[in-house]
Amino acid sequence: VSSMLTRCRTFKVLVIGDSGVGKTCLTHRLCAGEFPSRVEATIGVDFRERQLDINGERIKLQLWDTAGQERFRKSMVQHYYRNVHAVLFIYDVTSPATFSGLVSWIEECRQNSLGQQIPRFLVGNKSDLRDPSRAEAQVSQEWAMSFSKAQGMMFFETSAKNSPNKCGKGRQSGGEVPYQQ
Ligand code: GDP
Ligand code: MG
C-alpha cells in the first residue's frame, strides 16, 4: 500500500524584491508556463504552486509572491520567513535602483531568519530588455556576480518574458532551461 502513496514534499519559496521587477510575472511563468498578458499589482502576498518530479519523487514548490506595501508587510513579514526553504531576491537588470534596493530586502531576510540557513538566490530579471548600447545604465552581470559571491548567494539572470535563463558565468553550465510540466 505504501508504494501507492505518492510522497509529496512541499518547499516554500519566497519571492522578494522591489515593486515592478517582475516577481508576479516570474511566478506566473514558473507555475502556469506563460508570460501573463497583464498583471495586477500584488497586494500582500499571492500563492502559486508548481509540481515537479525529481528522481521519481513528487515535489511541490509553493511560491510566495510578495508585495512591498509597508502596512501589509509589517504584520505579515514573520509569516513570510517561517519555515521557508529558499528565498529568491529579484531585481530588474535595466534598473540599478532595484539592485540597490536589494540591500534592505536582504536585511529583512537576515532579521527574520535568525538561526536558519536559508538558500538564497540573486535573480536579475528582464534580461530580454538588455540594451548593449546603454550598458552603463544597467546592472552588469559582473557586478551582480561579485555581489552574489560576497553575499553567499547563487546568481542567475532570467526573463519572465523570454526565458534564455542565462546563468552566471562560472557558476552553472547555463543554456536553455525550458518550462517543463
Ligand atoms: P512585481 O511588482 O515585481 O510583481 O512585477 P510584475 O510581475 O507585476 O511586473 C511589472 C512589469 O514588468 C509588468 O508590466 C510586466 O509585464 C513587466 N515584466 C515582468 N517581467 C518581465 C520580463 O522578464 N521582461 C519584460 N520585458 N517585462 C517584464
Ligand atoms: Mg507583484
TrEMBL record:
Thylakoid as UniProt keyword: no
Return one GO MF term.
Answer: GTPase activity
Q: Which residues form a coiled coil?
A: none
Does this entry carry the keyword Heme?
A: no
Q: Which domain of life is it from?
A: Eukaryota
Q: Which UniProt keywords apply?
A: GTP-binding, Nucleotide-binding
Q: Family membership, please give it.
A: Belongs to the small GTPase superfamily. Rab family.
Protein name per its UniProtKB record: Ras-related protein Rab-33B-like
Q: Which residues of the full protein are shown?
A: 14 to 194 of 241
